[in-house]
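Render this sequence as a predicted structure.
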Amino acid sequence: MMDIEDLHPMRKTKLDDILPFLKPFRKCRKAPKEDFDHALRTTFLKELGLKVPKSEIELINEPFLRLGYGVNSYFDIMLQIFYLFSFISVICLPIMYSYSTAESQGMQEF
């Protein structure tokens, strides 16, 4: 009988694949073993004289592709929003500085 954990598409991924800021610490742990299912499939394909599809190699290198288009498009949109707000912040910094140093009477008491 299968558990819910067995059905999750990212059950075999390492923590540093999910959290990119942990990638520098890969040297601290042992080299990951190759996935048994992938190794078995690669062996069968080599015996049959077939190549391993590029899409399968991409799935191994990029774990978020297993989760589908929705998750990947979410990350792309979040990255675009980050760039947009960074650009707007850089453009607005001189305006905010000029308002902070101006001697206007709008905020002073009479």
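Summary. Residues 38 and 60 are 9 Å apart (CA to CA). The chain has two domains: 1-67, 68-103.
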